[in-house]
Design goal:
Layout (H helix, E strand, L loop, with lengths): L1 E4 L2 E7 L6 E5 L3 H7 L16 H5 L2 E9 L1 H4 L3 E6 L2 E2 L1 E6 L2 E7 L5 E4 L7 E10 L1 H11 L32 E2 L3 E6 L3 E12 L2 E11 L7 E8 L2 E9 L5 E9 L15 E8 L5 E9 L4 E4 L2 E2 L2 E2 L2 E4 L2 E3 L1 E6 L11 H13 L4 E4 L8 H10 L2 E5 L12 H18 L5 E5 L9 E2 L7 E2 H19 L5 E2 L21 E2 L21 E3 L8 H7 L10 H5 L7 H12 L6 H25 L6 E4 L22 H9 L3 E8 L4 E8 L6 E10 L4 E10 L4 E9 L1 H7 L4 E9 L2 E9 L11 H4 E7 L5 E7 L3 E8 L4 E3 L4 E3 L4 E8 L5 H7 E4 L7
Parallel strand pairs: 25-26, 25-34, 26-27, 27-28, 28-31, 29-30, 32-33
Antiparallel strand pairs: 1-12, 2-3, 2-4, 4-10, 5-9, 5-12, 6-11, 7-8, 7-10, 13-14, 14-17, 15-16, 15-18, 18-19, 20-23, 21-22, 23-24, 35-36, 36-39, 37-38, 37-40, 40-41, 42-43, 43-47, 44-46, 44-48, 45-47
Helix pairs in contact: 5-6, 7-8, 12-13
Length: about 800
């Protein structure tokens, strides 16, 4: 087999360019124009608005390459394109070879007759999708919530803008491209199936190949773990060129979701040989041995929606994933690792790859395998209707689904295939209308084609038609609490107060969230001084949730907190507000186990610097929400339910399935002056895999004596003498409580650890809420931040600066703030 890699140096040309520019493949037109300084950073200020011409234009990529004569002696010579974005015409040596129309597919074309020995040229012309989308929409509009015509093209939908993303319509060769030549003998497909029994796992490795008539083929299959062979097998392929190797693994090491165990990954290799034992082709992947199921069983609340790993149910804790950059080819393995490490650090065990982006790179799923992050994988259909009545469209999406199911199915992390995002949330009706498609045409794709493909190609994985979806009763009741999954946007879009969450008993919530502004240093990166007001043109341009986005943040902010004193305080307070909102629902759902068994907030990450629902901003900085997520997703959680009218506090303890044994719960009631009004402790056994109400505190008399606005309830959960969870509750809005100044209430001490990090110990005389550390000169990562500080208790935070620092330099730039500093 011969391979000629065509990645690397190309040229880019277009009508707007005086001459061809150097280009890098994989890449896209925007990154190549940036590299040649034809355009400026589209994320800075309002530069994006001046770059809309790029998406309207046609672009051509070209290069020369050499083909050795022996390559063309092979019977089979293919051009393989792993990703073309999107409407492309491919020519080799001036002759058109093929046209493509799907960003999500991998393409293979017979190129032999187009090639010649020696020097060759390839040219790929990308046509703007916008004229086609406009023309198709003119002929027959497809109802959509976003960009008109999006349903007609198989391209990353958020490329056309979203309520958190810019409008930067890309094109280019965005994944690998190569010439492959062989004699016709090659592996066509390998599929590893698992069958679990007590003390063993049997692997069925299905192999399919192609070969010239009369060729006898064998496949050598080997399974190893950490370099040690666990099983070997050999099969002779049938006349149909296929076969199954059955391998028994005794005393297997099982793969577990994060927090439940380890993530051992077995290496499975297949070597295709001829009668002489010569290697003709090979295939190699890593697999995790596990049974990962979605249990839907009738119970007293309706029908369950519970993920189960190796027989153990678990509460799904996580967030929704969007593309990590508007320009996908800029995202490196290191970028994926950083974001996924951040998810794991916040005690997450699941991420949902959202349907308006793209099927992520292999590196993303490899890293999820290694970290135990289960992946809810959407097919790429979001917030729009689709021409499923068109046979050509259906054939195209079938090929897309086959490509991606085959590519991803071996990953241990892959938990579920989901048909679409939010179509059942108002985009489907009995017949086609101006606002919806028919259930009949919806069903062609999401109830028939996609589930049949999953059943054929990945039968050990569950399929879910859409998110949200109600499988029992009226399908139109898309957020029914009795079954299925829900998207809860009554808070934010519906403008319900945060307390609305206390009534939520949904089985699984796969979307909900609240917006905030990025870190002040991130905002400084895309603004100048005159922009730094949330009503400025640039700040509103970096807010895509409509004209009301920033206003809605402020509306909620002033319901809970005092008016911030300046621009920077507004940014910080918006993040605290966001964390409070998300914390309220997550804690409610975790308390409601096993009726509720999942909370995936919207969203983990951003694709550019913007006000959004993300807990990690566009420059990779943790917002307050991400620090709070680390606490409300903790394996063992103590949480309050406050009843202002009755003057009571329900104290709840929640634990993941792995959290067993003894613990000690403590509640301390103080006034704002720091005086302890009540302190009690109660031993307990952790409710592994569930939650229990430990006690209801009756504080009406105490509140009458001291006043609701003067009292704070602090909660702590200890295991083996160490505090593993802290929380708090108040009987009044924080805006009505008069907190002491941070500087006068708190004292900090700093010591430097041997590894260069710092330990900051904070002790306060009076209660402080949402206390956070920052540094004036460098970014820092803290073990915890935005924490409640109880009088008389020392809180120690490990701080890692982005750059090495002396103790003196660190102390000089260290700043401690709390809620009071946002307005006082």
């Amino acid at each position: 087999m011969h391979t000629i890699d065509l990645a690397g140096k190309w040229t880019l040309s277009g009508a707007a360019l005086e001459r061809p520019l150097p280009a890098r493949i994989p890449g896209c037109v925007h990154t190549d124009l940036l590299a040649s300084r034809v355009i400026r950073d589209p994320y800075y200020r309002d530069n994006e608005t001046a770059m809309q011409w790029i998406g309207e234009a046609d672009w051509t990529y070209a290069r020369e390459f050499t083909v050795p004569a022996e390559v063309l002696e092979q019977p089979c010579v293919l051009l393989e394109c792993d990703g073309l974005d999107t409407l492309a015409s491919i020519s080799i040596n001036g002759r058109e070879l093929a046209r493509t129309d799907n960003m999500f597919r991998a393409w293979k074309f017979d190129a032999k007759q187009h090639l010649r020995p020696g020097r060759n040229t390839i040219e790929i012309r990308f046509t703007s999708p916008l004229p086609m989308m406009r023309e198709r929409t003119k002929q027959r509009p497809l109802p959509t919530w976003w960009f008109p015509g999006g349903g007609y093209i198989r391209k990353e939908y958020c490329n056309f803008g979203w309520d958190w993303g810019p409008t930067l319509v890309t094109c280019g060769i965005w994944r690998g491209i190569r010439i492959v030549a062989h004699d016709g003998t090659a592996l066509k497909d390998v599929h590893v199936l698992q069958h679990h029994a007590k003390g063993r796992v049997d692997l069925g490795v299905r192999v399919a190949a192609s070969a010239a008539k009369g060729t006898r083929l064998k496949a050598q299959v080997e399974v190893s773990l950490a370099g040690n062979v666990a099983a070997r097998g050999e099969i002779t392929l049938s006349k149909k060129r296929d076969g199954v190797a059955l391998l028994a693994l005794k005393s297997p090491k099982l793969w577990w979701p994060a927090g439940m165990g380890e993530q051992p990954l077995y290496n499975v290799s297949v070597t295709l040989t001829n009668e002489k034992g010569e290697c003709l082709d090979g295939w190699e992947r890593r697999v995790g041995l596990r049974v990962l199921e979605l249990k839907q069983e009738k119970d007293k609340w309706g029908q369950s929606f519970t993920f189960v790993a190796n027989g153990i149910p678990f509460f799904a804790k996580g967030a929704n994933w969007i593309p990590a950059d508007t320009f996908a080819t800029r995202v490196t393995r290191e970028d994926y690792a950083r974001l996924l490490d951040d998810a794991a650090a916040a005690n997450m065990n699941m991420v949902r790859v959202w349907a308006g982006g793209f099927y992520e790179d292999d590196a993303f799923y490899d890293l999820c395998d290694e970290r135990g992050l289960c992946v809810w994988q959407d097919f790429m259909f979001a917030c729009a209707t689709y021409p499923t009545y068109d046979k050509g469209f259906m054939k195209n999406v079938e090929a897309e689904a086959r490509d991606n199911i085959r590519r991803l199915r071996h990953h241990a992390c892959l938990a579920l295939w989901c048909g679409n995002n939010e179509l059942e949330q108002g985009l489907v009706d009995d017949e086609w209308t101006d606002t919806a498609m028919s259930w009949k045409d919806y069903g062609r794709l999401f109830d028939t084609l996609l589930p049949s493909l999953v059943s054929e190609l990945d039968p050990q994985r569950p399929y879910w038609p859409g998110s949200p979806h109600t499988p029992v009763g009226d399908r139109r009741a898309f957020n029914d609490q009795a079954s299925g999954d829900a998207h809860l946007w009554d808070v934010w879009h519906g403008r319900k107060p945060f307390e609305w969450y206390y009534g939520c008993r949904h089985r699984f919530v796969s979307e909900f969230g609240f917006q905030s502004f990025p870190h002040p240093r991130t905002v400084e990166g895309y603004t100048i001084e005159e922009d730094r007001n949330i009503t400025s043109y640039v700040m509103e341009l970096h807010q895509r949730a409509g004209r009301t986005g920033n206003s809605l943040i402020m509306l909620y902010m002033l319901d809970y907190f005092r008016l911030p004193k300046n621009f920077e305080s507004t940014l910080w307070l918006s993040q605290i507000l966001q964390g409070v909102a998300v914390r309220m629902l997550v804690e409610q759902l975790r308390r409601n186990q096993p009726q509720s068994m999942g909370a995936l907030y919207w969203q983990l990450n951003d694709c550019w610097p913007v006000a959004s629902w993300a807990s990690i901003d566009g420059h990779g900085r943790w917002k307050a929400l991400h620090y709070m997520a680390k606490r409300f997703f903790a394996p063992a959680l103590i949480s309050p339910v406050m009843d202002e009218a009755k003057g009571t506090v329900e104290v709840h303890v929640t634990a993941d399935s792995t959290e067993k044994g003894a613990a000690l719960a403590r509640w301390i009631v103080t006034n704002l002056a720091g005086k302890t009004l009540l302190e009690e402790a109660q031993p307990l056994r952790l409710p592994a895999g569930g939650s229990r109400r430990l006690k209801t505190l009756q504080l009406a008399k105490l509140l009458k004596e001291h006043g609701q606005r003067e009292v704070i309830v602090f909660l702590e959960l200890e295991r083996e003498g160490a505090v593993v969870s802290t929380n708090f509750g108040t009987f009044a809005r924080p805006k009505h409580m008069n907190f002491a100044a941070t500087a006068s209430a708190a004292r900090t001490t700093v010591r430097q650890a041997k590894d260069g990090a710092f330990e900051v110990s904070i002790r306060t005389k009076k209660p402080l809420l949402f206390a956070w550390l920052t540094h004036e000169s460098v970014d820092i990562r803290c073990s915890e931040n935005f924490v409640p500080l109880r009088p008389g208790r020392t809180t120690t935070i490990r701080v890692e600066p982005q750059a090495p620092m002396t103790l003196a330099a660190f102390k000089n730039g260290l700043r401690l703030g709390s809620l009071v500093d946002t307005y006082d």
